[in-house]
Specification:
By secondary structure, the protein is an alpha/beta fold. Helix content is 32%, strand content 22%.
């Protein structure tokens, strides 16, 4: 007897229903995180928002009303934060690539024992500028190291496209651009202060200092570490370009992205397959976010 005859939905039925359900969830999330709701949340909480057990000061101009609302409703990086709390720490060194606003870094810090070490790396010039200040309230019990760097496949300056928001900002494929010259980082504009976008576009790419994961670890004398990474496809630089850089990595929480590496298009599934070839096994996967370990099963 088929599933449909037993009264259970078939795969086709579930697929048909998932479309409207997904659209409804997206619509609801959009309403809950609208600028108007974000403004109300900011005023009601005095910009002190508790999310997933950690309280954040979101008065910094890089936080948009949408991001304040997303934090309040626990819609900001939910999968990544959940896996951090479940799989990262509690002792040792954690390296975070793509630290952004510092929200995930604060959650990592909440998992770490006194005396541990947290290394946070961010390429976006404006986000990197205030990252230490946003993290310090959460990291008094550990050693905090903040680096304004892009992770790429070779040391040196790289082009970084500033999107309309921080979520739209990413490295350019180095095979499509000549080596750039470092320019001054843009300053926070009135648009950011008004919350129109986390960091407004500034008319094109900027050049930022870049390094490889291997160089980052060597310069900071890091041997064993856990890794948290959300760098919009630049994870290909070590998963495909230098897998040996992960030799000391015990556990990882990665957000994987379709990208272009060495002139070739690669998918998130390609990157996950590369991680599995390095003897990582999957602990959990939720969409683009995956938790990996080399610990015995």
């Amino acid at each position: 007897m088929t599933a449909a005859r037993r009264g259970r939905p078939s795969d086709a039925d579930r697929s048909h229903r998932a479309g409207p359900l997904l659209r409804a969830k997206i619509l609801a999330a959009g309403l809950l995180t609208s600028p108007a709701v974000g403004a109300v949340v900011g005023a009601a909480t005095r910009n002190r928002i508790r999310s997933h057990g950690v309280r954040f000061d979101v008065t910094d101009a890089v936080f948009t009303p949408r991001q304040r609302a997303a934090l309040f409703w626990r819609l900001y990086e939910t999968a990544e934060i959940g896996m951090i709390h479940r799989y990262v720490g509690p002792a040792g060194t954690v390296v975070e690539l793509g630290a952004s606003l510092g929200i995930t870094g604060a959650h990592i810090a909440s998992r770490l024992a006194p005396g541990s070490r947290l290394v946070c790396v961010e390429a976006h010039p404006e986000l990197a500028a205030g990252l230490r200040r946003r993290l310090e309230p959460h990291t008094a019990h550990l050693t905090l190291d903040v680096a304004a760097l892009a992770i790429t496949d070779r040391p040196g300056p790289v082009l970084f496209d500033l999107g309309a928001t921080t979520l739209g900002s990413r490295l350019r494929d180095p095979t499509t651009a000549a080596a750039p010259t470092i320019t001054a980082a843009p300053t926070i504009t009135a648009h950011a202060a008004a919350g129109i976008s986390a960091v407004p576009a500034v008319g094109g790419p900027v050049a930022v200092p870049g390094t490889t994961l291997r160089h980052l670890l060597a310069e900071r004398r890091i041997d064993a570490f856990d890794l948290v990474s959300d760098i919009e496809g630049a994870e290909a630089s070590f998963l495909l370009g230098d897998p040996g850089a992960l030799d000391g990595c015990r556990r990882a929480v990665l957000e994987l992205h379709d990208t272009v590496f060495a002139g070739r298009r690669v998918t998130a599934d390609d990157l996950l397959a590369a991680a599995r070839r390095l003897d990582f096994r999957i602990l959990r996967r939720r969409g683009a976010v995956v938790a990996l370990t080399r610990d015995p099963a």
